[in-house]
Design brief:
binds zinc ion; 543 residues; Alpha-D-Glucose-1,6-Bisphosphate, Chain A, domain 3; 3 domains; TATA-Binding Protein; isomerase; A-D-PHexomutase_a/b/a-I/II/III; binds 6-O-phosphono-alpha-D-glucopyranose; metal-binding; alpha/beta; phosphoprotein
Amino acid sequence: MERLTIDTQPIEGQKPGTSGLRKKTKVFMQPHYLENFVQSIWEGIGGVEGKTLVLGGDGRYFSDRAAQVILRMAAASGAAKVIVGQGALLSTPAASNLIRKQGTDGGIILSASHNPGGPDEDFGVKFNNPNGGPAPEEVTNRIFEATKTIRKYHILEAQDLDLAAPGSHDLGGMTVEVVDPVADYAELMEELFDFDAIRAMISGGFRLCFDAMHAVTGPYAKEILERRLGAAEGSVMNAVPQPDFAGGHPDPNPVWAKELMEVMHGADAPDFGAASDGDGDRNMIMGPGMYVAPSDSLAVLAANAEAAPAYKGGIKGVARSMPTSRAVDIVAERQGLDSFETPTGWKFFGNLLDDGRVRLCGEESAGTGSDHVREKDGLWAVLLWLNILAKSGKGVVELMQDHWRTYGRNFYSRHDFEGIETERANALMDDLRVKLADLPGTTVSGRAVEAADEFSYTDPVDGSVATAQGIRIYLDGGARIVLRLSGTGTTGATLRVYLEDRSEDPATFDTDVQDALKDVSAAAHEIAGIEHHTGRTEPDVRA
Ligand code: G6P
Ligand code: ZN
């Protein structure tokens, strides 16, 4: 096997975003594109020589090719070992678990999460640190710097390895260990949760439906929900991972998880419904006829986590991303938990989890997780819900209504305006920034503005500062508007407008969420000049 050194040139735009480098698959398939980025990862982590890495992903189109290239490049740069999920598959939380469990020097995850896959869709590469979490900005900055100066990369000239079956291979002196992607993860879940209680609930007639959306969680959900917990065969639908997710958009929300919505709104709806995204870190929770907003889910999990053996001793603190509703803050306040508000992006939870300041965290973007790994974890959230239901004997709808009666309800919705020209989106944010100081004391769409600022975050553990993390506008009555631009898109800009209003009056709890947020939405449009800047009056997605 020959070690080749290939001359290359820096390629523009290889800056990792909220969650690694995400581009159109065809961009990744251009000559040297993947190779430049991978060599820059080695550079950014101080070299890969002698190191052990984990490698896997959501199985999207081009993953199989990319995995072979990464293995050859790791071998050519002297890595000691790479642990690969069979078929190059590993859900993001399972990869995080493997990195931690095997004590590796990190790992590479091939995924564009909830974005569609295929030759005309999206691909992504992300490096995770030895703690199992997404590389912090300091590392991604070094990787980005390396992409700007790269002149050569190293790769082994070798045949493809057979990743289809578990086993050990030698690749130019580097060990490649192909492992069952599900086993270690399933074992971890059994340690965290009361499987006996869940099994008893299911055998007592509790029915569930899990939509894997043709993505990576299929094999995990089949093993855990059907085989280990006894859910009826077929409870997991769309369970075979496909490179293009069967043409779907593997994003578990009411818009894209249409099949699950139909089942859960149907006449014979099961007791519990859930879905996960492309790489298995997001979750969506439903009861019969009811969609549970991710921010509410986080609050319910925080309030009831002690039902699960892993959290019996308490969760100490909770963290949420800034745009996530403040429902969980109320739980924290009442239960004497510490609470933290971080910028969007799971990586910002890493230090808080590592430092033991919080055990539970979550985001409005359908991510919830805990200190068991350093990624958000879709199936974990499903199992914690099931554990709570099993212990409480309540259904999803009842649990949710009890929660609102106890803590009040934070009506919440995110409105996305997609595919806006980047310049126009930036202009909207710039104009807003200028206006911020003058907003408090004014009344907009009948609501008084109490405060407004641009969020910046100082990490309490390492003191690092993240600025310009979104605009917060606080209105009377506990309402809030947040505006920010998405950091995960691959084309143009997406404006995200997060709307929240609060009520403690049970008579209002059944109000339609969009109706409840009408005036807050009107205020957002007026303050930000959304139509003026984007030409849009209606969002593309109401999540
Ligand atoms: C990914 C990240 C999350 C983040 C989400 C939305 O899933 O892992 O942490 O909340 O993207 O990010 P965006 O920048 O598109 O709002
Ligand atoms: Zn994801």
